[in-house]
Amino acid sequence: GDPLGVNVRAVSLDGGRVAIEATDVTEAHRVARVRRDFVANVSHELKTPVGALQLLAEALLDATDKDPAAAIRFAERIKHESARLGRLVSELLELSRLQGAEPLPEPEPVDVDKIVVEVLDRTKTPGSAKHIDVVSHGPHGLVVYGNENQLVTAVVNLVENAIAYSPESTTVSITTSVSAGDETGHEAGYIEIAVADQGIGIEPRDIDRIFERFYRADRARSRATGGTGLGLAIVKHIATNHGGRVDVVSSVGVGSTFTLRLPARPAEAAMALPPSVEI
Ligand code: ADP
């Protein structure tokens, strides 16, 4: 690290004079560091489940004759761990696609009702396994501008988290609304999709970090739920790629609400930031 973010170099000129050349390298250093950290994190995140799978396979081989009941337990853990590894790989690919490998698809009008129906369908199984009702509220006929697949992915991630971090027999709600905007009209022209749960909530010290790749407030719980630590990073990228954003309000032991704010007009969608270079 260069605390000043400046490369300083002495250059000798004719006649014994010396010039000082300074180059601002803050951004270049930051990008290089983020990339290094990311590769280190990915290696670690991949090695852990691969190591676990090796040990479990050895234990399974060992137990096959001696203890068939234990062998079944090891086989089930292999299944769980390999499914998580598969999810990790596909989410990494998804994230790297979103991070600039491909240009943002042309924003198209997307029916919010269609997003909600698709999300309810895709989250039915995890919800009913925990007796969690996933319900939706809001006016029909809302339209946002963007890419339908990405938007469904974002809301599915939020609802899957809501289910994963909630106790059994609670409710998760998806509420859609039109953002009224302030008196100057700022923030008008946006649609909000809010996913609220009655779950464990998020500590204030974690709340600013949960959108970072691989950040989990509670690693053990995240692993147990099959989490990869990439879901919210993907949601955040999708929101910014759409010229929108995602916010969270949470209270420990009460629940969390994640709100996606998306452009309701093509102009706002076209103002999306260029894909980030963080990979
Ligand atoms: P993970 O795969 O671990 O769920 P995410 O990126 O989706 O990764 O979420 C990051 C972390 O944010 C989670 O590990 C969890 O600590 C916290 N989190 C996300 N959604 C919720 C929620 N609805 N309620 C409580 N904590 C949540």
TrEMBL record:
Class in the EC hierarchy, top level: transferase
Annotated Histidine kinase domain residues: 41-266
Annotated GO biological process: cellular response to phosphate starvation
Location of this chain's protein in the cell: Cell membrane
Molecular function (Gene Ontology), one example: phosphoprotein phosphatase activity
Keywords: ATP-binding, Cell membrane, Kinase, Membrane, Nucleotide-binding, Phosphoprotein, Transferase, Two-component regulatory system
Entry keyword Magnesium: no
Keyword Nucleotide-binding (UniProt): yes
Catalysed transformations (reactions): ATP + protein L-histidine = ADP + protein N-phospho-L-histidine
EC number: 2.7.13.3
A GO CC annotation given for this chain: plasma membrane
Protein name (database record): Sensor-like histidine kinase SenX3
Entire-sequence positions represented here: 92 to 370 of 374
